[in-house]
Automatic annotation (TrEMBL):
Its EC number is 3.5.1.3. CDD domains: nit. Coiled coil: none annotated. Keywords: Hydrolase. It comes from the Eukaryota. SUPFAM superfamilies: Carbon-nitrogen hydrolase. This is omega-amidase. One of its GO terms (cellular component) is mitochondrion. GO terms for biological process: asparagine metabolic process; glutamine metabolic process; oxaloacetate metabolic process. It is an enzyme of class 3 (hydrolase). GO terms for molecular function: omega-amidase activity. PROSITE patterns: CN_HYDROLASE, UPF0012.
Length: 296
């Protein structure tokens, strides 16, 4: 029952799949996604186990990892959360591997509505959190990309944060990344890391994907992880790829290119406090002024 462009890499970037700083080890799985749902889920499960073998404590999958991304697919691939086959596979994988799984997203069916939903499973396979994409991807860039999730999906209305092994983590889904207010609310709930399963495209990906991750990290002084599907040039919607990790100083510390791969990184969570202490914007906000003007 349900409730509720180009691949050019800027010279300043360094490409590295494994970094070693102290803290919390995460794996971002840039999965190859195709039309075969069972195959998509099986390869996600297999990658979760491989990531565990590399020491990951949290493993994250991309947006729409069990289905091609496109409005015409959502109804056919949709499942109830948490009773559907994909959720059951994620729960089992999380329990068997003993890791937290941020389960990318799946099209969720709830009554007569569909949502784009991320589920989060703890190391015993228990559902820790469920986030329904709050900002639907409705854009129209003539001769480039027109997409209207709202034709078939309903929007979520909740901020989603959870705690795992002492780390407070927030979840947004793809287009949610464009909304600083949402990241701000998650930071206010104590998050040190925001994870965004996402699938930007070949028009907005090169322009905004990394920029937005660095902007959110800089605004909120926390870690930001973006997890994309791998690029399939023959798909109806071609994902940008480039899963990425940004630190609380807004450095792009690691990223992938467009191919199937896994980024494993050890997050130094002490950087969150370091940057917040050294650049104390959190206590310097003039909410007295903003609120007054806002009310006029
Ligand atoms: N799946 C999405 O929400 C795509 C968002 C996107 O590409 C963007 O530019 O924003």
């Amino acid at each position: 029952m349900c409730e509720s462009a180009t691949d050019a890499v800027h010279p300043r970037f360094f490409k590295k799949r494994e970094i070693h700083v102290k803290g919390f080890k995460i794996a971002l799985i840039q999965l190859a996604v195709g039309p075969d749902k069972a195959k998509n889920v099986a390869s996600a499960v297999s990658e979760i186990h491989k990531a565990k073998d590399k020491g990951a404590q949290l493993v994250a999958l991309p947006e729409c990892f069990n289905s091609p991304y496109g409005t015409k697919y959502f109804d056919e691939y949709a499942e109830e959360v948490p009773s559907g086959a994909t959720c059951r596979a994620l729960s089992k994988a999380a329990a068997e591997a003993g890791v937290c799984v941020v389960g990318g997203t799946v099209p969720e069916r709830c009554g007569d509505k569909l949502y784009n939903t991320c589920t989060v499973w703890d190391g015993s396979g228990k559902l820790l959190a469920q986030h329904r994409k709050m900002h639907l991807f409705d854009i129209d860039i003539p001769n480039k990309i027109t997409f209207k999730e709202s034709e078939v999906l309903s929007a979520g209305d909740q901020i989603t944060t959870f705690e795992y092994q002492g780390v407070k983590i927030g979840i947004g889904i793809c287009y949610d990344l464009r909304f600083p207010e949402m990241a701000h609310l998650m930071a206010k709930q104590g998050c040190s890391l925001l994870v965004y399963p996402g699938a930007f495209n070949m028009t907005t990906g090169p322009k905004h994907w990394e920029l937005l991750a660095r902007a959110r990290a800089n605004d909120e002084q926390l870690w930001v992880a973006l997890v994309s599907p791998a690029r399939d040039p023959d798909a109806g919607y071609v994902a940008w790829g480039h899963s990425a990790l940004v630190d609380p100083w807004a450095n792009l510390v690691a990223h992938l290119d467009h191919r199937p791969d896994t980024l494993v990184a050890d997050l130094d969570l002490s950087l969150v406090e370091e940057v917040r202490k050294q650049i104390p914007i959190r206590v310097q906000r003039r909410t007295d002024i903003y609120d007054t003007i806002h009310k006029k």
